[in-house]
Design brief:
Elements: H1 3-10, H2 32-52, H3 66-77, H4 79-96, H5 103-122, H6 132-155, H7 165-205
Helix pairs in contact: 2-3, 2-4, 3-4, 3-7, 4-5, 5-6, 6-7
Length: about 210
């Protein structure tokens, strides 16, 4: 073999080269549901960032605006979709604000898990008497209960935090009620708009 032939054989661009193609890409098979959940999680994430800019008189007392999105997703697509949106919001929010694996992340995660458990149980309540407001209040109380449990078992193992329970309980009741009402109004407006569009299409066909 001549020298120039040997150089061609050993060249990285040669067809016999064992070096992988650096321009290869990984393709992910996504569905329409994946795209929908990603958009809803992005909306919840935006509300979380907005909420972080709102000053709070007491650490941990926040309105929980992202829960409005979770309630709407729960009513429209079920508990599984709501769980995905809630957990994606917690993880992405912590990465965006630089608190991933910090105490604040575990507080948010514990609150989200407890609120999702409460929502899973509340879905079995009679829909005639219990709706978005009830779900929101129960989720808010479960959220703050999970966070207080983590604070007591890990961060501040002192019985004195029990004095904060009435404050956090009142905040959960107020914000849970307000968020539930907002979610209910959004869903009612959506039903009205959908009904109006359906009537318009029906009249157009006739």
């Amino acid at each position: 073999m001549r020298n120039e032939d040997r150089v061609k054989a050993d060249s990285p661009n040669s067809g016999n080269s064992s070096i992988p193609n650096p321009q290869s890409s990984i393709l992910l098979n996504t569905t329409a549901e994946d795209h929908r959940l990603a958009r809803l999680a992005a909306v919840a994430l935006g509300l979380t960032v907005l909420e972080a800019a709102i000053p709070s008189p007491l650490p941990g007392v926040k309105p929980g605006l992202a829960n409005i999105v979770v309630l709407i997703v729960l009513a429209r697509f079920g508990w599984r979709a709501a769980a995905w949106v809630s957990l994606l919001r917690v993880v992405a929010g912590s990465l965006l604000m630089g608190s991933f694996l910090a105490p604040g992340f575990f507080l948010s995660l514990s609150g989200a898990l407890c609120s999702l458990a409460a929502l899973a149980l509340s879905m079995h309540l009679p829909r005639r008497w219990f709706g978005a407001v009830t779900h929101s209040v129960l989720a808010a109380f479960a959220h703050i209960s999970g966070q207080m449990l983590v604070v007591y078992l890990w961060l501040i193992p002192h019985a004195g935090i029990a004095y904060l329970l009435p404050i956090f309980g009142a905040a959960a009741l107020v914000f849970g009620t307000v968020n539930g009402i907002i979610a209910m109004k959004f869903m009612e407006e959506e039903k009205t708009t959908h009904h109006r569009d359906t009537e318009t299409q029906r009249n157009a066909k006739t």
